[in-house]
Amino acid sequence: MRFYAPTNVYVEKNCVENHKKELTALGSRAYIITGRHSAKANGSYADVTAVLDEAGISYVLFDEIEENPSIETVMKASAIGIEEKVDYVIGIGGGSPLDAAKAIALMIANPDEDQSCLYNPKDLAAPLPFAAIPTTCGTGSEVTPNAVLTRHDIKTKGSIKYNIYPQLALVDGKYLASASRNLLINTSVDALAHLVESRLHKKANVYNYMFSEYGLKLWSGLIPYLKEEKELDEAAYGQFMLTSTIAGMAIAQTSTSLPHALSYALTYRRNVAHGKACGLFLAAYLEEYAKNRSEDVETVLSLLGFDSVAAFGAFLNSILAAETISAEELDLYTDELVNNAGKLATYPFEISRDAIRTIVEKSLVIA
Ligand SMILES: [Fe+2]
Prior knowledge:
By secondary structure, the protein is an alpha/beta fold. The protein has two domains: about 10-175, Rossmann fold (3-Layer(aba) Sandwich); about 180-365, Dehydroquinate synthase-like, alpha domain (Up-down Bundle), CATH 1.20.1090. It is built from 18 helices and ten strands. The chain has helices at about 15-20, 20-25, 40, 45-55, 70-85, 95-110, 180-200, 205-220, 225, 235-255, 260-270, 275-280, 280-290, 295-305, 310-320, 325-340, 340-345, 355-365, and strands at about 10, 30-35, 60-65, 90-95, 130-135, 150, 155-160, 170, 325, 365. Helix 16 (about 325-340) crosses helix 18 (about 355-365). The longest helix is centred in the middle third of the chain and has 21 residues, at about 235-255. It starts with 7 loop residues before the first strand and ends with a strand. The structure holds fe (ii) ion. The site of fe (ii) ion has 6 residues, from helix 7 and helix 12.
């Protein structure tokens, strides 16, 4: 068994201001990586630039990271970072800017390499120092080594072949206050998928149980907010954010599993938000898993406060609208996972093509 968690993580209100010394000690010219709007709308960009200005650290902004960022965007940002001679990277936002920022930190440190190295592992120089400031409550990227990018060459998404942990993660629930209800649902369901998939992972052990089981218990406390039975407030936003970071710590010890693998095709082809795309497969995945080891599924359900997979599925259906795919896509999604040996190896049991097809069929509407 191994436990490895090298990121210096702070989870608290006014985190950026409180830990400005650590944030400004990472280098002398920062490269801020964000999406187009949200970092400015939720106050995180202003918080970061205020501490950089105060410390006299110069910075360059790249704010063109799209949802499900492409390798092309990563390469564009990296070229600018090399040109601007930045020496550290600050990613602000959801999973897309944070994951892209990891790949950008790597590519800037390896200016003679082209994009092919991202998926063909080789010995590279270490990435630039990287600080992550999440502003959504799903990714966990601030504490994981993973960076998932969109690959137009194979029409899906895939994790780059390097482990890149942030040096510093500054986690503050206040950035969720401007999030839409949909964003809150989709990203918190992503965290749920991280907790479930990590708990049921082939590599699961007591270390990630600490995070996945405690995280599932915490996640049960989010349900009344997602059902709109309780009003969101500052304390609630803190809980959503903390749960997401703990879920990230869980997958950092294992990786994700089959629902994430199935989600990539749905996101690529139907533009379904990442968390929702994972969440739609969770109930049918639990049903399949329970045929092999029902006690693990019972643990997951009881920590979440459900007495059956059906009740869990009904809850998810009440917060996630159904998605429709064609019969042709049903086979395509199935085969994508059948051919993904790496992800299949995360599942503790043998699984047939028929069983995978059944998971997809039960999870989506087939037109
Ligand atoms: Fe995820």
